[in-house]
Amino acid sequence: MEHLNFERGKSLQQAESWIEAEKAYRLVIEENPKSFRALNNLGTVLEQQGKLPDAIESYKLAIHAKPTEAIPHYNLGNAYHRDGQLEAAEASYRRCLEQNPDHVDAAFNLGRALYDQTRLEEALTAYQRAVALDPEYVGGHSSVGGVLIELGRLDEAEPAIRRALELDPNSSEEHFNLGRVLEGQGKMDDASWAYRKALDVNPENTTTKESLGRMLHSAGRQDEAVEFLNEWIKREPDNAIPKHMLASITGENVESRASDDYVRDTFDRFADQFDETLKRLEYRAPSLVMAVLVDDYKVQRNAFGSVLDAGCGTGLAGTLLRPMTRRMEGVDLSSKMLAKAQALNVYDELFEAELTAFVSERHDLYDCVVAADTLCYFGDLEDVVNATFQSMKPGGAFVFTLERMNIEDDGRGYVLNPHGRYSHSEDYARRVLEDAGFKVRAITVPTLRREAGLPVLGLLLAADKP
């Protein structure tokens, strides 16, 4: 019966009848609790049903039954990875490779687990191992090239990406990556060709269109950039992204803040890679805000009754703020970013809303409002700062970051930059705060993050409501 039930389980698994397959494998395990094949396959069907904790336990039992078998280690690594347990995933992939040094997918997924921990050099070594094992592994060559781009080793990245293109000539992703390399090497004509080739394959890819538009502008090909963006707008008249980009590079029709659609679309696309990308950029805004609260305000555990994380994103600031407050709310325009924040279980309540409208409806509610890397999507700060003032209790703290304007002020106090964010002058920010009724406690000029290896200077502001 054990053999019959196992074969029945396999057939049901192949037919994607997960529940019935689970029943069949459990019958095998009842008869033979040490059947590593049934335990391993049970883990797979449990995983397909979204039962990750149960799948992980089943894989562990399979490994206990036969520790020298590579496959359960590999499957356990994948389950840990899906569950966000990156160090455990790494360990499982390494154990799989100990049992089977030629396991290509284990080498590649080890690279992914290391990459997601921002251990780029180690990830590169793992990806290189995968392509050494299988020289025609497109994803391996692509990942080698991608990591080398992030490490700034463009001359090494180029042959890896070109090899991926040899193996998959119609890959939009690899043409895009080639464009990134060529742009970084200053080969703007070739980069333009690569980006346009990527768009030939995938005309709807917003990231590629953004990159081409910004590359043309940075290369001094202003007319070509404007023409490209106008064509994009003509094809997609309701798309906020090319309109915002066009304003950012021409200085014409600049809105007082980025539109809701622009912010929502940008961060919905970015949500899945947001935290990992910012780690690699040495992103510091949440920790800078925290340092002000701890060092300047001497905030201790549960010091605040209510805190608002304004533009909370995936919850990077909220995780740090939670011990300081008895209640914490978050607000953001991006539903996908909010979903990431919700998964952290640190917020009492999350709201999908535009910030100014949201705080305008709240009065004398918050002991502290923080906005880490949020107000750089506002040019004119008056409305949002005034509304924030009325939302706070007397004695409340308002701590936030801006990007620092590095060109001569034309009188407005802010400018929309080609990268799509606004930067502000210190004098303008101080004036807006004081006009709203705040008492400015401190303004400093820290490094917010690094882009292209260079520091991005910001303004870190702390103000009190009397």
Automatic annotation (TrEMBL):
Entry superkingdom: Bacteria
SUPFAM superfamilies for the chain: S-adenosyl-L-methionine-dependent methyltransferases, TPR-like
Keyword annotations from UniProtKB, A to Z: TPR repeat
CDD domains: AdoMet_MTases (cd02440)
UniProt keyword annotation of Transcription present: no
GO MF, one annotated term: mannosyltransferase activity
A single GO BP: protein O-linked glycosylation via mannose
TPR repeats: 36-69, 70-103, 104-137, 138-171, 172-205, 206-239
Tagged with keyword NAD: no
Name of the protein described by the UniProt record: Tetratricopeptide repeat protein
Species, as recorded: Eiseniibacteriota bacterium
